[in-house]
Known about the structure:
By secondary structure, this protein is α/β, with parallel strands linked by helices.
Amino acid sequence: MLWKGQRQSDNVEDRRGMSGGGLAIGGGLGGIVILVIALLLGADPRQLLQQSPGVDPSSGTTASRPTNPQEEESKQFSATVLASTEDVWADILRQQGRSYSKPTLVLFTDAVRSACGEAGTAVGPFYCPGDQKLYLDLAFFNELQTRFRAPGDFAQAYVIAHEVGHHVQNLLGTMDKVDSLRERMSEAEANQLSVRLELQADFLAGVWAHYAQQKGILEPGDIEEALGAASAVGDDRLQREGQGYVIPDSFTHGTSEQRIRWFRKGLDSGDLRQGDTFNVRNP
């Protein structure tokens, strides 16, 4: 990805080196299930995080953990990808007569507090609609390459674009509608609705990639990197690798095939009208 020299977003909040509180995922899940769910991209913090009303999300104490050149480059890369998503979504929503409220990217180390609660690195990158912020521990990029075997800078860009996709869903009211419906459903039905929400976020990440490609910042192999990342975090693949078998009713993000297909659909079309994952029989 030809990102160096491109505009970097100012909407980055650097909380690295601050202790934001311990990991507070609710009990009742086995260790394997926690691992499978927590390491999924785009984890819904309202499901995985302990609610912490009244907590100042920016509070914390400074810890003595020096950064390194690679991490600083990852920060600049993330700010550049965020800036690109800002430009693309501002243009798309402007054409629909809407304004785009830019999200903030929060970089943290080990643990963080958000308006949705507290989270540790194991939760993975997530979006909190309560404060309209994306949360990312840059160490996840190493996990993406080593644990998930999805290397490349555009695989990392896909991660950020997916979370921005959730922000777009929030602005359009989709997340509120899904939350309202999910409250009246069984667990299996609610999981299926979550799958559709996540697949739409993958589609929206693909829409961003469509316009990024038009602007000439993609290099040969970038799309394959993003598709590799989408495949790596499919529910079926993670469950098979984590516990040796799959439980479709427990899926919350979609299979590898589904995630690839919806990202590809957004990439090929660049058309929001083709991203309705909620009104198709088999997403």
